[in-house]
Design goal:
Udp-n-acetylmuramoylalanyl-d-glutamate--2,6- Diaminopimelate Ligase, Chain: A, domain 1; UDP N-Acetylglucosamine Acyltransferase, domain 1; nine-stranded parallel beta sheet; 318 residues; 32 strands; 2 domains; 14% helix
Length: 318
Amino acid sequence: MRLSVISNLINATLIGNDKDCSSIASLNFPSKDAIVLLSSQKYLKDIDLNKYGAVLTTQEICELISSNVSLLITKDIQKSFILLASLFKHSSSYSSLDNNKDIVFLGKNINIGKNFRFGQNLVIEDNVTIGDNVTVGHNSTICHDVIIGNSVDISNCTTIGSEGFGNFRTKDKLWMHIPHLGKVVINDRVSIGSNCCIDRGTIDDTIIDSGVIIDNHVHIAHNVKIGCDSAIAANSAIAGSCSIGKRNLIGGMVGIIDHISTCDDVVISATSTITSNIIKPGTYTGIFPTTMHNSWKRIAFWVSKIDKMAKLLKIKRI
């Protein structure tokens, strides 16, 4: 692709020779037909920019460059790099319904919008509505009564709308499963990673609001509501009937117990366990620092005695 075309697509200004470039290179592996990202001036003394086809950088760094390499100057280097990477991203070999109905199971009363793309072994059950520009990866399942908005990306081996883990224990100690009659509603511009499971609501719906991004191996239980533009990292689990606010950032391996609510603009550190409501924006961490095992055993012993010590000292609980 010509640099003049690329510059228009990524909101950058071209300075220098217009030429064809076919890839993106890292600073460690130069290529004469590739574009390199230069986001900090500290790298200038260690690299020869003439070994690259072009450099994506800022106006401030541009003024420090003395080589004749072609430059793509941008005011927002992170956004421009994302747009640049999108131009060179490999497109998976997904299918359209018109030509490949033999590799997808379709139930009854399905409404699918324009430009729907999907992988092998897709299952779509009854009464599903899917908007425009939706992609669903290989070996995924969209269960009955799921509603998916526009521009949604669902990766491989993900299940949307499975039965939630709602059970009742009878007087004779036997488990009875509670039927889940609600839906899963996924609004516009949501991205869901591979091997995720989002359960349907018991009566009310499970709702993933617009702009949410979800990493791989995430479980979202029945009746959960995720606020718009939130992000959930891998291996996190959110138990039933939680309400997550807008723009929450949930780190990897976070566990949130049932019926918890968080306000907007909350950050939860990786591996934290959330056991009470969060009502004030900020960063929250619920873990002890890692230490030697023998030290941890002594710490754990005294932590288990805190309640008894408080009673002996007659310390008022908070």
